[in-house]
Amino acid sequence: MRLDRRGLITGSAAALAFTGLGRHAQAQTPGAAEETYLNEVAGYGPLAPDPNGLFDLPEGFSYQVVSQFGQTMDDGLLVPGNADGMACFPLGGSQVALIKNQELRPTSASHRNWGPAGFNQERIGLIDASRAYDTFKDGRPLPGGTTTIVYDLETRRTVRQHLSLIGTATNCCGGPTPWGSWLSCEETELTPETGDVTRPHGFVFEVPADATGLVPAVPLKAMGRFDHEAVCIDPRTGIVYLTEDKVDGLFYRFIPERPGELIRGGRLQALAWRGQPGADTRNHEARAWSVGDWREVAWIDVHEVESPNGDLRMRGHADGAALVARGEGIWFGGGEMYMTATSGGPIQRGQILRYVPSPEEGRPGEARRPGRMQLFVESTDEKTLNMGDNLTIAPWGHLIVCEDNYSSSIRNHLKGVTPDGRVYTIGRNVFTGNAELAGCVFAPDGRTLFLNIYNPGLTLAVTGPWAAFRR
Question: What span, in angstroms and rounded, lies between the C-alpha atoms of 224 and 218?
């Protein structure tokens, strides 16, 4: 069956028929003897194996494929591979825009081939190189960036798709802004000295949700150069919070000179525990805190934020910032934010940290009423939570967490977390290996959950009885 680029493909064997899938991922059938997950609360019930061999869900839930690697988009380019972080924006009426990252690394020749220009770069002439941030040394734009999908919630069809950012590298996650744009983050510190590029990388780029084509790729350099993962913004203050995907990473905030206009610059700071300079939140070698514990925080300025030597986190930690074990997904809601520390905890299978800003966040009064950080979840069993990565907050207050464990034998699951920190399973990726789940986000009406399967590069729309379990 041929896949129509405008069609909404129901989960089926047809969704697996596109070129190259067999080379990039391997599907397996779960064994009957032992389940792949362990729930702390029942959630939506046990997972039922998908007869079409793509994504397992509880009874009453279903998925549709809204975009897939290799499809021809409306601009003539191809949907790139390695679908990662994503956000959903209302466009008016029943239409929404999904902006998703394509985590393509210019250091690998195969990743170039998975880009929007095609396997043999035959469509490279369709890309406006003047809008690219960077190129290979032979002049071709780097393949990393974002694609935008316009989807109709009422008809449940993909309306159009197009490339919206190009010339960047290893675009892992990011986050939505309150003013209707996506911040795409480079998870790399590649330089012309270390790769086939012409400019340094490790920056954040902004993509308006209503853009109908490629936007100019302008780095927001004041937000720092490091292995960026995700961002969220407190709409009350305009302060941006940023995670860093390093085992010895930091947690940052950016106080803009003018909220909503990030290009104008601002001040970058890193989080520290009050009274414990250089604290270690990871619980790797020694337990610094337990689930439920709170710590008051302070924020310290970091300097030389464009970090030509790639040492921002080392300098920040030396000045007293706390270590975080691979900070990845982060999401703001209800006056607080949650972030994953993918390799935190004694078994290094992940933590979820919670941050409540000060009532005086970013102002002089916060020293009297500091923000607070809590260890909200810490995995003690990989079947309960195995390296949570991207996450979102559901409209009813539960966390939805994507697992990201690269293994030939372990499945990645979509997890839910109740407000009291109990974990349950929502879905299971049938693919193993480099096949993380990513980009989970709800439509504005809360009835459709979108998410990506990184490899083979699928975007799904999941619907079902979400209201059935909200305790």
Answer: 14
